[in-house]
Design brief:
Layout (H helix, E strand, L loop, with lengths): L1 E5 L12 E4 L9 E11 L1 H9 L8 E2 L4 E8 L11 E4 L12 E5 L3 E3 L6 H5 L2 H14 L9 E5 L4 H13 L3 E5 L3 H9 L4 E3 L5 H7 L5 E6 L3 H11 E9 L18 E4 L4 H4 L7 H14 L7 E4 L5 H12 L6 E5 L2
Parallel strand pairs: 9-10, 9-12, 10-11, 12-13, 13-14, 15-16
Antiparallel strand pairs: 1-2, 1-4, 3-5, 3-7, 3-16, 5-6, 6-8
Length: about 325
């Protein structure tokens, strides 16, 4: 099968940072689907792993944790899908990735693709939808009846783009998104935020500017260490902070004590990495998101289409993600 892979961690502008290769077709395990990949998207995790994780000597490492495709074959214990089904998923970080023509994935973390979306539109959503859903409902403990205000730091990015929609569509929270450029601020408004503020300015002052005195929940999706002091100022007593990024400096948890604030990490790969008893929840979650998309309540967050799946185009997509200026998701389609 065709794939895009690498032999050693390199900067994206290096000639061999990503390579077009031919690899053996993968064989599905007992609960695996073998999917013929139609479209993929690129996430920050792809760029982080490319820069720091080396495959065993002489082997290739295939990245990619977002895919939409067609089930080609199934393992002997599969019960949720059959060949010919259209599926979408975000995969398992401990296994080879989806930047390949054929990809094996556990059925418990796969959902049925929305019928109203193209493969490219669908590929933009799984990883960020799982992350946003788990962060909002599982980690921050929000319910449809929860009152208060949610501030989403980095609302124009991949996770922020779907989290803004989920919070607006499925909760009673006032949704405040942050974005620093006119085009990204407009994007966040389109997605349903009640207010948009500029995270290049002090957050509390920006909240007060839009008549939001404090927030009960914060989803910090990027540069948490930079915004940490302002986040604490902005949170109401007994508020909740959820984050997904990798702060460059350790966070001072003692700073949360005065207001009895709680901190919650979200990593969507936890369930698949540890084969948790509730791993099947990601299958159900993706099916629910697909239903919301087909009902017209959620939209694809496809931001840029980089063409066919090739090393050259994936290099461009990785560079775009690394620029920090991405709006929505970067998608590639077909080999």
């Amino acid at each position: 099968m065709k794939a895009v892979a690498y032999r050693q961690p390199l900067a994206i502008d290096a000639a061999e940072s990503l390579l077009d290769v031919t690899l053996p077709d993968p064989m599905p395990g007992p609960r695996d689907l073998r999917v013929r990949v139609q479209a993929i998207s690129v996430n920050p995790v792809d760029t982080k792993i490319r820069k720091r994780a080396a495959p065993p000597a002489g082997e290739f490492k295939v990245l990619g944790w977002d895919a939409a495709g067609i089930v080609e074959s199934v393992g002997p214990q599969v019960t949720l899908f059959k060949p010919g089904d259209r599926v979408w998923y975000a995969g398992d970080i401990t296994r080879p990735g989806s930047n390949a023509e054929l990809h094996c994935v556990d059925e418990r973390i796969v959902g049925r693709m929305p019928s109203s979306l193209s493969f490219a539109q669908a590929a933009a959503l799984p990883l960020t939808a799982i992350t946003a859903w788990e962060l909002l409902f599982d980690r921050l403990g929000v319910t449809p009846q929860t009152q208060g205000a949610l501030m989403i730091i980095g609302a124009a990015g991949g996770v922020g783009s779907i989290l803004t929609q989920l919070a607006r569509q499925l909760t009673s929270l006032t949704v405040v998104g942050t974005a620093s450029r006119p085009e990204t601020q407009a994007w966040v408004r389109e997605l349903g935020a009640h207010h948009v503020i500029d995270h290049s300015q002090p957050l509390l002052a920006e909240l007060q500017r839009v008549a939001v005195p404090s927030v009960t929940h914060v989803a910090s999706l990027t540069q948490t260490d930079r915004h940490y002091a302002e986040i604490i100022k902005s949170l109401a007593p007994q508020g909740r902070l959820g984050l997904i990024d990798d702060p460059a400096q350790p966070l001072d948890v003692m700073a949360l004590k005065g207001k009895s604030l709680s901190l919650h990490w979200e990593l969507m790969f936890t369930r698949s990495m540890f084969q948790t008893a509730d791993m099947h929840a990601q299958h159900e979650l993706l099916n629910r998101v697909a239903q919301l998309v087909d009902e017209g309540r959620l939209r694809s967050t496809l931001g840029e289409h980089f063409g066919a799946i090739s090393a050259a185009n994936l290099k461009r997509a990785h560079a775009y993600i690394e620029s920090g200026a991405a709006r929505g998701k970067a998608v590639l389609e077909g080999f």
